Amino acid sequence: MTKRKLIIEDIEYNPSGLKALASQPNNKNREYLIEYPTVYVINDKKSNNFNVYVGESNNIIQRTTQHFNEEREDMDRFKKSSSSKMFVIGNSHFNKSLTLDIENQLMLYLSSVDSVNSLDNRRDNPQNKYYTSDEMNNIFNDIWDGLHKHNPILFPLQSKVENSAIFKSSPFHKLNRKQNAAKDKIINKVASILDKKTTEHKLILVEGDAGSGKTVLLSTIFYLLNNLDKYTSKENLHNLDTHLLVNNDEQVKVYEQIVKRLKLNQKNKNIVEKPTSFINDNEGSDVTLVDESHLLWTQGKQSYRGKNQLNDIIEKSKITIAIFDKHQILRTQSYVEDKQFNKLKDIAEKQGNHIKLDTQMRMNASQEKISWLHELVYGEKIYNIPSKKDGYELKIFDDVNKMFNQIKSKNDNKDNGLSRVVATFDWPYSQKHKKDGTFYDVKIGNFSKPWNLQLPRPKNVSKKLAWAEQKQTINEIGSTFTVQGFDLNYCGVIIGPSVKFRNGKIIYDPSESKDKNATQNRTMSDNSKKKLANELIPNELNVLLTRGVNGLYIYAVDEALRKELLKAQNHKI
């Protein structure tokens, strides 16, 4: 195959700039802009932020001239500004499918750039297999690198973008086959239900283990539902009243940034909310999407006076799309009894609205290593760590200081990126700061680091960033409260004394846990009291062990557990 030729032209976005682009001086490179499919990025800088539009075309002159002459809200801001510019991107290997894929990839990356204030295009265009699809990643990397040289603020280093929490939750990721099938099914279901104008409340239930791509699927559906006017002429499907709910403060921050950049709150200012606020303050909605519905309360607490948040959300919504993973229930007040969950599941199944995702999307690990972790947590057995090289680093440490320092080193390396140390909730912590100014620390011998959300945030670090994205938090220890639902490139996990190894098996010791929400008794539907710690503490460990994309480091406080893990690691040496 011939060597690729990349051309990036930076022009003024006005009639003079378009005329210069069309003039075609005697330069062979220009034919790749005029006669081949192209991708373009219109941008306008205001203060330190950019408004951006991404598109692709088989005829760049015709398309951009059309943009400049048509009356369209998303184009008016660029036409009326004297500082608007346009990057036109050509490549000798471009074809229609490839430019559509590049366009979608640019939307994915630009939606995650801090300096982008708003981002538009006409529709998402992820492609499946096509001729030259195997070249897409290399071509995109060349393009982004070229754009970075033109404008490093609008196009920062790829590694910086990829490490952002928004990138990991962006609605522009290319979905796998099962995710795509689920997306199409859900969108068609929503359209069909709303078109029939039924008064019956419908539930679409999506189940999947940690890392199976549930959040990316939900984010994509959320984006599409707020852009249905681009896909259908049916007026009753335009301007839907949608809400996205999640009972996790860190994930709320991420969704709020996505909504702002993609301008998804045209009708509803509170489009992203905590569940209690939605239940207390809204009469209802057309479609309510619930991320991590396993975090919803199933009993009254604080400002919530009901008995089951998911039931209340369903009653207030024409359609509820709920994401659920029973292995991520962490608190007694969120516990769902089997008979209660099975009742909801039966309702969804009878309506043809039950979807199961079972492909591991987060961890770049072999199935053997994923199974090893599952057996550790739920099988309560420690087998020899699989030695197959798969690009996923699973490492056991006998010194917590060494593990912490290696995670810091990974985080400082731009090729490895976002990495943090987390721990089971086995050391005291309170959201109320100590009166003497000291911190609640995770202490192990001479190792002592503050729990999450305690170190002062530097003035140049936005409070809108999720915990792991704030640079000072590399010196804190994270918990399920700050990392559940998030990806880390490398994750160091301190397994505290609530997890032990005795008589050849893992045991869970609730007396060592400091998480009252996991260890207190729960009143069941038959008014009996039940201890749930031996279900919830394993779930906590499961959440922590499945955060790392490229690697997992483990240190166990319990000496017998640590020795057994080291033995499982050293068998292959």
List keywords for this structure.
single chain, 573 residues, alpha/beta, five-stranded mixed β-sheet, 20 helices, globular
Provide an overview of this structure.
This protein is α/β, with parallel strands linked by helices and 573 residues long. It is 35% helix and 20% strand. The chain has 20 helices and 22 strands. Helix 5 packs across helix 6 (136-150). It is globular. The mean pLDDT is 90.
Reported for the largest beta sheet, the result is: 6 strands, parallel
SS class:
alpha/beta
User: Separation of termini?
Assistant: 43 Å
* Strands ordered across the widest β-sheet: 8-7-9-10-6-11
Q: Kindly report the average pLDDT value.
A: 90
Roughly what percent helix? 25-40%
Computed CA radius of gyration, to the nearest angstrom: 25 Å
Low-confidence stretches: none
By DSSP (H or I, 4+ residues per run), the number of helices equals: 20
Shape: globular
Number of strands: 22
Percent of sequence in beta strands:
15-25%
List the helices and strands and how they pair.
Blueprint: E1 6-12, H1 15-22, H2 31-34, E2 38-46, E3 49-57, H3 60-69, H4 73-79, E4 85-91, H5 96-110, E5 116-120, H6 136-150, H7 158-162, H8 165-169, H9 177-196, E6 202-208, H10 214-225, E7 242-245, H11 249-262, E8 272-273, H12 275-281, E9 285-290, H13 309-315, E10 317-324, H14 338-350, E11 354-357, H15 367-379, E12 393-396, H16 400-412, E13 419-423, E14 441-444, E15 447-450, E16 477-478, H17 480-483, E17 488-495, E18 499-502, E19 505-508, H18 516-519, E20 522-523, E21 529-530, H19 533-545, E22 548-556, H20 559-570
Parallel strand pairs: 3-5, 6-10, 6-11, 7-8, 7-9, 9-10, 12-22, 13-16, 13-17, 17-22
Antiparallel strand pairs: 1-4, 2-3, 2-4, 14-15, 18-19, 20-21
Helix pairs in contact: 1-3, 5-6, 9-10, 15-19
